[in-house]
């Protein structure tokens, strides 16, 4: 028989000791669990030891736990610095990662992003000797050598007027391979054939731009040029362009559509960009045609235009242009100028040109494979041809007909314009954001919608990269119609720019960038997004983030561990929303000898 009916004095004392031990152990574990989760003991234990746990990506579960701790504010030490050799790191344009990929149609030079769990969770440091950049407009002509000590372009292209080293600076005489005497006389020559002045041309795309002297020179004519080039053997041409304060973007024309809407640009330019426009059944020419506005101008300077030993390539290029009914304006030396027609039924020729299917949305351009077909003008509703839209600057505030893609789009556009005029005034006058001062030149709006924030800065010496999230309504065409520039992007991936390229980064509704549309479920996390913002932002640069008070509370916690000095403010008066505004400054820190 058992002992259950024995009086307490008769029970086995050894059994009591074992039960007591098990009970004590259980309660101790419960107590330890509560201490780790709900007190700072857990925080300090998580932060103790090697901080490099934040860099490690060998264990995704460990990374997820660290991200959760950071978002909850239970990890109080700053995220550590990345290694010294990562000062120019672009996660989606990493030559070491991409060199193993296919060369077909330059696939290996397009965006190829690692999975989130494969990316180190660390802050990109500035290079040794980094200085706060030279301010605009002086920066157009000179920058600090120590901020990007890459002499390759200066050594190879200095005789063509690209750039030269001079004392502590790189200087930019304004030249290029096809205009070694400077972009100004080259632009003057183009002005004989196309309306450079007067506001007819506002948005331009410069393909294979070098250090963007062409786009920089057009700014004085009121033309806003987005210059792009891949990360290539010249290493840092886009980085130089952005350091100068010229709009630029790392991009490759390869297997996918460029991340712009249909009929966005008034003027597309290639100066020795070496894009094989007639290769792959003229697919690259078709992509340029998709992007060029009806009545817009295409200028190709350099090979194959009347170039030695490229007679066939030049003949093919002319044949494609004729097949698309492009009007030949001029052939001046090695430069050809065409004008896009109002309408065209492609002529039959050896390229087998066909019109794109009606189901093909020509403005959808986020990771969309290039089509070997021509976009019909009738496939896009609205007025967007040159001559039918107002000239600059009137087009900035005139509601574009393409705004009607959304219900009550014109009313939304006008309300959005008024709202952002009021908000930007509040940023300047009450929150003391340095908009309108020489301290800010390169600006990004991460959730641009109709571009109202950028439009409110029209009198400031800034340019704005308007980013329309790829999973939101595709309103980037409206932004281009009003004479502004931007790109599509998915903020669960890194952006295609070098570190330290923006003076101010603005985002309204930051949580919406990481959520599944129409759901509370997250596709990625706030920590990775803010680490990416930090990568793009210059030391002593400014971040302005607005969202609900609950979201801004989380943002403020993460701001601390990414080493920003942040304040939380109420929204502007007469606002009918429920938002707080975080204004932060990225602190200027550098690697110590022990961390490098």
UniProtKB/TrEMBL annotation:
Keyword Phosphoprotein applies: no
GO molecular function terms listed in the Swiss-Prot or TrEMBL record: S-adenosylmethionine-dependent methyltransferase activity
GO CC annotation, single: membrane
Enzyme class: transferase
A biological-process GO annotation: methylation
UniProt superkingdom: Eukaryota
Annotated localization: Endomembrane system; Membrane
UniProt-listed Enzyme Commission number(s): 2.1.1.-
Pfam families with a match to the protein in the record: Methyltransf_29 (PF03141)
Record SUPFAM superfamilies: S-adenosyl-L-methionine-dependent methyltransferases (SSF53335)
Sorted UniProt keywords: Glycoprotein, Membrane, Methyltransferase, Signal-anchor, Transferase, Transmembrane, Transmembrane helix
UniProt-listed PANTHER family: PECTIN METHYLTRANSFERASE QUA3-RELATED (PTHR10108:SF763), SAM-DEPENDENT METHYLTRANSFERASE (PTHR10108)
Protein name (database record): Methyltransferase
The organism of origin for this protein: Hibiscus syriacus
């Amino acid at each position: 028989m058992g002992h259950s009916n024995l009086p307490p004095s008769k029970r086995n004392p050894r059994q009591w000791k074992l039960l007591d031990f098990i009970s004590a152990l259980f309660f101790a574990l419960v107590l330890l669990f509560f201490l780790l989760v709900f007190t700072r003991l857990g925080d300090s234990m998580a932060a103790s030891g090697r901080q490099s746990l934040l860099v490690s990506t060998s264990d995704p579960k460990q990374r997820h736990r660290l991200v959760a701790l950071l978002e909850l504010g239970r990890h109080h030490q700053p995220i550590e610095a990345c290694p010294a050799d990562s000062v120019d790191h672009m996660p989606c344009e990493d030559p070491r990662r991409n060199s193993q990929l296919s060369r077909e149609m330059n696939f290996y030079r397009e965006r190829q992003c690692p999975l989130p769990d494969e990316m180190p969770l660390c802050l990109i440091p500035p290079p040794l000797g980094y200085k706060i950049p030279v301010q605009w407009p002086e920066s157009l002509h000179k920058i600090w050598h120590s901020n990007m000590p890459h002499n390759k372009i200066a050594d190879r292209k200095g005789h063509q007027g690209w750039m030269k080293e001079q004392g502590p600076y790189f200087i930019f005489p304004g030249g290029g391979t096809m205009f070694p005497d400077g972009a100004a006389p080259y632009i003057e020559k183009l002005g004989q054939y196309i309306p450079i002045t007067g506001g007819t041309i506002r948005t331009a795309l410069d393909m294979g731009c070098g250090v963007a002297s062409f786009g920089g020179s057009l700014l004085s004519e009121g033309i806003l040029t987005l210059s792009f080039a891949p990360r290539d053997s010249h290493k840092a041409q886009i980085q130089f362009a952005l350091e100068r304060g010229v709009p630029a973007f790392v991009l490759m024309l390869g297997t996918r559509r460029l991340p712009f809407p249909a009929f966005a640009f008034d003027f597309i330019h290639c100066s020795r960009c070496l894009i094989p426009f007639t290769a792959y059944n003229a697919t690259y020419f078709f992509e340029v045609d998709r992007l060029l506005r009806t009545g817009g101008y295409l200028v190709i300077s350099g090979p194959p235009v009347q170039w030695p030993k490229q007679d066939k390539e030049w003949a093919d290029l002319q044949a494609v242009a004729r097949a698309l009914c492009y009007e030949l304006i001029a052939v001046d030396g090695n430069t050809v100028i065409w004008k896009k027609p109002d309408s065209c039924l492609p002529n039959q020729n050896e390229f087998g040109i066909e019109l794109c299917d009606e189901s093909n949305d020509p403005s959808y351009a986020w990771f969309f494979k290039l089509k070997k077909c021509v976009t019909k003008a009738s496939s896009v509703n609205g007025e967007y041809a040159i001559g039918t839209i107002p000239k600059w600057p009137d087009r900035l505030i005139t509601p574009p007909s393409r705004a009607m893609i959304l219900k009550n789009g014109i009313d939304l556009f006008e309300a959005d314009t008024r709202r952002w005029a009021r908000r930007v005034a509040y940023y300047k006058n009450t929150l003391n954001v340095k908009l309108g001062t020489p301290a800010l030149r390169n600006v990004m709006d991460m959730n641009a919608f109709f571009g109202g924030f950028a439009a409110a800065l029209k009198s400031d010496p800034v340019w704005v990269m308007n980013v329309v999230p790829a999973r939101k309504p595709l309103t980037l065409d409206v932004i281009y119609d009003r004479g502004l520039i931007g790109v599509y992007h998915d903020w669960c991936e890194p952006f295609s720019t070098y570190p330290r390229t923006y003076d101010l980064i603005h985002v309204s509704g930051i949580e919406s960038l990481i959520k599944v549309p129409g759901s509370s479920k997250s596709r990625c996390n706030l920590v990775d997004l803010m680490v990416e913002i930090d990568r793009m932002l210059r030391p002593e640069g400014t971040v302005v983030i607005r969202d609900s008070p609950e979201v801004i509370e989380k943002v403020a916690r993460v701001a601390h561990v990414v080493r920003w000095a942040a304040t939380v403010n109420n929204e502007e008066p007469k606002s009918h929303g429920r938002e707080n505004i975080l204004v932060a400054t990225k602190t200027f820190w550098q690697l110590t000898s022990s961390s490098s």
